[in-house]
Amino acid sequence: MGKHLHYGGDYNAEQWPRAVWEEDVALMREADVNLVTVGVFSWAQLEPYEGSFSFGWLHDLLDQLAAAGIGVDLATPTAAPPAWLSVRYPDVLPVDAKGTHYSHGSRQTICICSPIYREKARAIVTRLVSEVGGHEAVKMWHVHNEYACHVPYCYCDNHAQAFRHWLKQRYGSLDTLNEAWGTSFWSQTYTDFDQVVPPRLTAAFVNPSLDLDYKRFSNEAFFEEFLLERAILKEARPDVPVTTNFMGFFKPIDYFGWAPQVDIVSTDNYPDTANPDWPLQSAMHYDLVRGLNKKVPWMVMEQTPSRVTWHYPNVPKGPGLMRAMNCQAIARGARGVMFFQWRASRAGAEKFHSAMVPHSGTASPVWADVAALGKELSALENFEDAPVDSNVAFLFSWPNWWALEAPSQPSSDLTIADQLMWLYRPLYEGGVTVDFCHPDEPLDGYAAVIVPSLYLMSEQQGANLLSYVEAGGTAVVSFWSGIVDERDSVYLGPYGGPLRPLLGCDVLDVAPLAASETLELQWEDGAQGKGTLWADVAIERDGHVLARYAKGPFAEKPAVFETSYGRGRAYYVGCRLDHDALTRLYGLVPALRLDAAMKCSGTGVERVARVGTDRRYDFLINYSDEQREIEVPDGGFELLTGTATKRRITLGPAGVAIVRYPSPGAAP
Ligand code: GLA
Ligand code: GLA
């Protein structure tokens, strides 16, 4: 698809008369838009009556876009079923855990296991392909929209039946199922598969293993529907890349399982810029998405040019921020940056959501920013020959997320989002870029692996990490890791299961702390630190104690360990170290090379490198409110200003620099 970055947005043209289309195409050219997503919510326009299709308008639209040289990311319209479908077949509407039936009137009101929904979805996709699949404008397929976005779990009878079928496949026999779910507790033993129901409203905690399997099953039900649509598209046009827009850290969908089935990973990112942590959260989002399928490119499919309508408050992006955010995405590997949506709606649920062409038209500063960014990006190459420079892995899995945040855990304050941000922050500030990896992935090649509370871990995943360390790798493991197997059954003995050889201690119990509680720590050299949230009750085994609790109920007890294993080493953290203490620990881990990395700690400047065989690009982004002077090596060339760089670069607030060096190793 050419050497340029994709630039454009969702073009919901069916909202507008044709005179507006002409203006749209002209404005797209003005902004150097090269790709637009068409048809995402067009089912009612394409099939206004059951079995009666209307594609003339879409042919005309694609003709106009093709004539202007604008590529189309053509969407299947199945995320917004038309009114006639649910009126005639109420079976397509989902049911919540209390048995309440949803109604038509917004979008995504879908029971993904409804046979009628699947049949009708297949019919419209097949028709779409036969009508316009061969059109020269079509450069990418966009399947559905944000699968599971509004109704991730349906509890209807269709789901119950499909869930039982799924369980039979997974467990084979009722005995195995009963054993896996620990049903001998609370008299939950099943004597017939038909007794199993989805985790509908029930009196006390639902069986957590059942709940976990329901989350797995629901994810797979959406995936199955995605694959059905994908197969129709691939059969017709195997040459056109397929994507479906992910949502980064979206809990219900296990994107690691989906990403091998897309040709380009795409994601929707709507960071809340009222939250000062947004640059870090957004960086983490991109590092996750880039890691989902390391063999294919990724792109931002949606973001907002300025404001959304669903944050509180819905703050607009300040001057230059939209540009800076897009450079962040490109720094972290994005092959394109797109928006929701091209032209602001006049009516409907999202009429006050920002768009590339706002209500006030081209007089709006948003438009000026959109057009200027398009120009700027069109002058750049897409950097595909220079992968993001990252050699630290962050282990992450959705089933772990589901299981760890189930009710009835030792601490409801322990969440995956917090654990990730805690362990990510010092690396982010130190300019160390990480790849998110699935715990089953081969890890060799990474200088270090961070393991944020991998509570649920299979024996095989444990063995994978152990063999990586044994061969010379470095692991940093946080508390509440290796606690249960994939069925959510506890590994007995001191905690840690398959990871125990890396902990250096025996964890005999855990002590969640009150939100107000802080434990003081002392490092072996006498330095002080602090821990919160959690304390493992551990005794020393074969590890070297790096820090102990200084006073209080755990005085003298060990908190942080270093252990050698095979040719490698592991660090185990038994409490949530405060930021300085964690930074100090990372500083003790040679493989992280925090000292050698491109420092930006405390300056509000993000630095990311992309390194090719014969060149290097350093991306510098200033999120602070102040001007920053940044030291850089001589001999670079700044791409956005077209100037040679010497020793320092000055960046104002939201300022960005992309400095190219003529060799891969020119690190500052
Ligand atoms: C109650 C119940 C027990 C157990 C405990 C847990 O006392 O009777 O079965 O659930 O709560 O604290
Ligand atoms: C999501 C959807 C879009 C739109 C935006 C609004 O990303 O995919 O259709 O609703 O949110 O922020």
By DSSP, the count of extended strands is 27
Strand pairing plus helix content: what structural class?
alpha/beta
Q: What gap, in angstroms, lies between the N and C termini?
A: 34 Å
The low-pLDDT segments are none
Count of alpha/pi helices: 17
> Overall 3D geometry?
globular
Helix content: 25-40%
What average pLDDT do the residues reach? 96
Looking at this protein, list some descriptive labels.
668 residues; alpha/beta; 27 strands; 21% strand; binds alpha-D-galactopyranose
Question: How would you characterize the overall build of this protein?
Answer:
By secondary structure, the chain is an alpha/beta fold. It has 17 helices and 27 strands. The strands form 4 sheets. Strands 10, 11, 12, 13, 14, 15, 16, 17, 18, 19 and 20 form an 11-stranded mixed β-sheet that branches. Strands 5-4-3-2-1-9-8-7-6 form a 9-stranded parallel β-sheet, with helices on one face. Strands 21-22-27-24-25 form a 5-stranded antiparallel β-sheet, covered by helices on one side. β8, α11 and β9 form a beta-alpha-beta unit. The two termini are 34 Å apart. The model has no long low-confidence stretch (mean pLDDT 96). The site of one alpha-D-galactopyranose has 10 residues, from loops.
